[in-house]
Write a structure and sequence with these properties.
mainly alpha; 0% strand; 6 helices; Recoverin, domain 1; single chain; 140 residues
């Protein structure tokens, strides 16, 4: 039988992985501009450009060798590498998930998406939770 801390760890590990997959699917949907369920060559090219830009903007003082090497590659070279592994003319969700787990670019983009979601949820919840209380205090 697992102790309480082990149960908590199992719970968070399960939902953490689910959360990461959910964010990766959100990223896929962002780049699937024509909403056909796959990323065309044009959409993959745009995705690589955006992700490289985000990584470049958030580059730490001492980036890893993998990030440095990936940033030195041309966008077209990265797109070509992606389509060498893709089984068709467009990238599916599964292929995107496989690529994102072996590439340094999606991590920074996921962090940016997370920040946007936190800010938008905060801006939505704060007024609905606190303004009625503030108004009530002012009228009392």
């Amino acid at each position: 039988m697992l102790c309480a801390p082990c149960l908590v760890c199992c719970f968070f590990e399960k939902y953490f992985i689910f959360g990461i997959l959910l964010f990766l699917l959100v990223c896929f949907k962002i780049f699937d501009q024509d909403k056909d369920g796959v990323l065309s060559a044009q959409e993959v090219t745009h995705m690589v450009y955006v992700m490289k830009s985000v990584v470049r903007e958030n580059l730490p003082e001492t980036p890893t060798e993998e990030v440095t090497f990936s940033l030195m590659k041309q966008d077209s070279e990265i797109v070509e590498e992606i389509f060498q592994k893709v089984r068709g003319e467009a990238m599916t969700v599964v292929e995107y998930l496989e690529w994102s787990l072996t590439n340094p670019f999606p991590e920074q983009f996921l962090a940016l998406i997370y920040q946007v979601i936190v800010i938008s949820v905060s801006l939505t919840l704060v007024p609905t939770l606190f303004f009625p209380r503030i108004c009530k205090c002012l009228t009392d």
